[in-house]
Write a structure and sequence with these properties.
The structure holds 2 protein chains of 2 kinds. By secondary structure, chain A is mainly α. Chain A is built from 15 helices and 2 strands. Classes of the chains: A mainly alpha, B mainly alpha. Chains A and B meet through helix 7, helix 8, helix 12, helix 13 and helix 14 of A and helix 1, helix 6, helix 7, helix 11 and helix 12 of B.
């Protein structure tokens, strides 16, 4: 039954499923979707030596070619097939600072920012950072939460008291202040942001797992396998944990939405992904400086964040309906 | 009940101890903030005077003592409720916090009030009109609202409703306008409310979406209960069943949710306060983390942790008070 979960999710909320697939696709293939290098060059009237596929050459051999392919193509000197968004997220262009969105060949579909960088390219490449932060932070929170929750629930006694206190400490700590303080210690980098979000987000999972363990540790099936000589580790990993997973999966889906939101909030405050790296929150931060012009700096990144959050929230809801943790809460 | 209360208060102590200890080490782990004060752009630069100033700073802030002594000193400060002085403007930390607290409290109190004011009727309405077309549309809209990132909404509201280029309905930020002191009291009140419309909107809408959903499911649950069937069998009117019997019982879980709202509102207010430049606790925390203002950070974390825990405790007590089925005597605390 569980192996068809993905299919049932796709059937139950197709839009969210499609959005999540699209986001993952964008994150993986960002280099192919937004790049100033052409996919294919089939006619070359210049004196330069141009590989058949400059994009492929750069990605595989690391050859960085600094030819102005777009200009060459516009002047008709080469014939080439370009990526849908023929810009890199890093290239600045002072001639086109804060250019409004325009639909034309080699135009900026979502406008440019204050350095003339293409907003669409930055958002597409920002997808990679955001999705990565979402998944890795939640994976980290899962690991922490599972370990802490199982230990507290299974061992009980002093370990339980200690871990429960620790969970309460993390909950009562104002999260954003904790993140700010930790990030002012560590250098803000993608990895550190994942670690910080993961390290502050595991409490919900730990509490649920602890509760499940408390409930199941004296269940008949556990007692039976203990009588058959199963070790503690085997009991935890093989018998109790798999039975406690459904609510955790649901929490994780919401957790991804939360982590993406936190990451963009941090970038918005200027302590997220460090400077030249593209990020959704970073573009939003820029928009603060131009409140009267440049509506595209506000609208587009917000849409990206919103669609991601709504998709993962919907995924969480669908999972809750499908896995029905409330039923599993009630049994045993 | 009383023994439970005392037990809960006592259990708060280790948590507070943990929070303060973590904060202490977080502030101490940093690369020496004092040398930046002495040698940095606002200090005395790389001179022998700066060297001497650094020594002075280390003595003044107790950095010359061993770590354990600094730690104990911090506890002494906390227990005597004397959080020493801010490093930024040399004012008393408590004074700064007392100045910022009202803003945050007013903002959060109004927010919680508005959340309950809107989401309870909304939830009940959608429970009664469950599965009709309007209800489905409304639920969908609320779902969308729930996922809208607050800082984005804040930026949009500011862009289109404040400032002047599109509509100039609300002020861009702050808490009161210039010349506030000279206004009569009703205009003062109006002025504050006028400034609060946008920040409250931003902090409210997500919770409304969440809460009304909660109220709806809890109300539907209550409608299924046996006593509702009994009430129907007695021949009570639909109205009486809904508004007297079901409603009162479905509202009990809302009290617990209040406890959940408290820390979220204190944490979330950093972004809202920063965007709308409201000089509350959130903005103070943000600024002091950036300025390496350790005394303010410690005091602020301590106070907001205490407030949060007290909020959760009060909600639990209120829960027991309202619902006679709940007793704490047998439940485990941790």
């Amino acid at each position: 039954m569980k192996s068809w979960l993905l299919l049932r999710l796709a059937k139950k909320s197709p839009l969210a499923f499609f959005l999540i697939c699209l986001l993952i696709f964008l994150a993986i293939f960002a280099d192919f979707i937004a790049s100033p290098l052409p996919y294919l060059v089939w006619a070359n009237h210049t004196e330069h030596d141009i590989p058949l596929s400059p994009l492929f050459a750069e990605l595989t051999q690391g050859r960085t070619s600094s030819l102005p392919y777009r200009r060459l193509a516009a002047e008709g000197k080469i014939k080439a097939l370009f990526a849908p968004i023929p810009f890199s997220p890093y290239e600045t262009n002072l001639d086109e600072v804060l250019a409004p969105p325009k639909l034309a060949r080699f135009a900026h579909y979502m406008g440019t920012d204050n350095l003339g960088r293409d907003v669409a390219a930055r958002l597409i490449h920002g997808t990679r950072n955001s999705i990565l932060v979402g998944f890795v932070a939640v994976a980290l929170a899962l690991i922490l939460g599972l370990i802490m929750g199982s230990l507290a629930g299974y061992l009980g006694g002093f370990a339980d008291i200690f871990i429960s206190r620790f969970i309460e400490v993390v909950i009562c700590f104002p999260t954003l202040i904790l993140i700010l303080a930790v990030l002012s210690l560590l250098k803000p980098s993608l990895l550190n942001i994942m670690i910080v979000i993961g390290a502050t987000g595991w409490t919900g999972i730990a509490r649920v797992i602890r509760g499940e363990f408390l409930k199941r540790k004296h269940a008949d099936f556990v007692l039976a396998s203990r009588l058959m000589g199963a070790s503690h580790l085997r009991l935890i990993l093989k018998h109790i944990l798999p039975n406690s997973l459904p609510p955790v999966i649901v929490i994780s889906a919401f957790g991804i939405a939360g982590a993406v939101l936190t990451e963009s909030a941090l970038s918005f405050l200027g302590i997220g992904v460090p400077a030249p790296e593209p990020s959704w929150g970073d573009v939003l931060k820029l928009s603060q400086d131009y409140p009267d012009i440049a509506w595209w700096l506000t609208i587009f990144p917000g849409c990206f964040i919103f669609l991601t959050v709504v998709a993962f929230n919907r995924l969480g809801d669908t999972l809750r309906e499908e896995l029905n943790p409330r039923e599993t809460f009630k049994d045993s | 009940m009383r023994s439970y209360f005392i037990k809960r208060i006592l259990w708060m102590l280790p948590t507070l101890f943990g929070i303060v200890t973590i904060t202490f080490f977080l502030t101490k782990l940093r690369p020496d903030p004092l040398s930046q004060m002495a040698f940095g752009p606002e200090g005395l630069k790389d001179t022998s005077a700066a060297e001497q100033y650094l020594q002075e700073l280390r003595r003044y802030y107790g950095y010359d003592k061993p770590l354990w002594e600094q730690y104990l000193l911090m506890w002494k400060n906390i227990l005597t409720l004397d959080f020493s002085t801010s490093r930024v403007d040399k004012r008393k930390v408590l004074e700064k916090i007392a100045e910022a607290l009202p803003y945050t409290l007013i903002l959060n109190a109004i927010t919680i009030f508005v959340v309950y004011l809107i989401s309870v009727p909304l939830g009940i309405w959608s429970a009664i009109h469950d599965a009709t077309f309007i209800e489905k549309t409304l639920t969908f809209l609320l779902y969308i609202l729930y996922s809208l990132p607050g800082f984005w909404v804040a930026l949009l509201l500011l862009r289109y409703l404040a400032g002047g280029d599109y509509l100039d309905l609300f002020p861009l930020g702050g808490f009161r306008c210039e010349g506030y002191e000279n206004l009569p009291w009703y205009l003062q009140l109006w002025d504050i409310l006028h400034h609060l419309v946008l920040p409250v909107t931003v902090s409210v809408y997500g919770s409304i979406a969440f809460m009304s959903r909660f109220v709806k499911s809890s109300f539907l649950e209550a409608l299924k209960a046996d006593y509702i069937r009994t009430a129907k069998a007695k021949g009570l009117t639909q109205r009486r069943i809904i508004y007297i019997h079901a409603l009162r019982n479905s509202l009990i879980p809302l009290i617990t949710l209040m406890a959940g709202l408290l820390p979220a509102l204190f944490g979330g207010s950093v972004i809202v306060e920063k965007i709308f430049s409201i000089p509350g606790l959130g903005k103070l925390a943000y600024d002091s983390v950036y300025a390496n203002d350790d005394p303010v950070i410690i005091a602020e974390v301590f106070i907001s942790a205490v407030l949060t825990m007290l909020g959760i405790l009060l909600a639990d007590l209120a829960y027991a008070k309202v619902d006679p089925r709940i007793t704490f005597e047998k439940t485990e605390v941790h």
